[in-house]
Design brief:
single chain; alpha+beta; 4-stranded antiparallel β-sheet; 3-stranded mixed β-sheet
Length: about 180
């Protein structure tokens, strides 16, 4: 019986050794995986943190109190980034890679303006861009004529009138028996 017990203990001990070895291996694997995840996260944070931001305001150069321009379009030449101004004429373009860029500002009826800007990582670059009126808009005269010869127009005039009126349209005359009543 002693020999059997000794064999069982040896078997149990050998299993313990195998399990202990597997546990050590898993610890190493977990350690490597943990270090890899920490490096991956810190690399992504460093990469994300290396962008800047451009903020600013677009104003009308010609007005005396420098009114803000609502809905002006702002774009970065060479990048697919841009923005539009809000109700106060302010804009913000985030996640801009560091470097030197040309900012293009456009607004209907105003000259397109280009301004150089340098973006630094983790900093906000502030701009104030004055827009100049194109001055090409001339006086526009709109002329209209009121058609009063149709039946619909006569009925509308009768409804709108404040006094009692009666009228006959060209269409009613052609439908009647006296087509040539001139």
């Amino acid at each position: 019986m002693n020999t059997v017990n000794k064999t069982k203990y040896k078997q149990i001990d050998s299993w313990k050794i195998v399990l202990f070895d597997l546990h050590k291996t898993n610890k190493k694997y977990n350690l490597h995986r943990g270090v890899f995840l920490i490096l991956l996260l810190s690399w992504s944070l460093v990469t994300l943190a290396q962008t800047g931001k451009i903020t600013g305001q677009i104003i009308d150069k010609d007005t005396s109190n420098k009114e803000t321009m609502i809905g002006a379009n702002i774009g970065i030449q060479g990048l697919n980034l841009g923005s539009a101004t809000d109700m106060d004429g302010n804009f913000e373009i985030a996640n801009v890679p560091p470097g030197s860029y040309n900012i293009v500002v456009s607004y209907v009826g105003y000259k397109t303006t280009t301004q150089k800007v340098v973006v630094i990582a983790n900093e906000t670059t502030k701009l104030q861009v004055p827009m100049e009126n194109e001055g090409r808009l001339a006086e526009v005269e709109v002329v209209g004529t009121k058609i009063t010869q149709t039946e619909r127009a006569v009925l509308k005039e009768m409804k709108v009138s404040t006094s009692v009126i009666s009228g006959i349209s060209r269409e009613q005359i052609t439908r009647g028996q006296d087509r040539d009543a001139a």
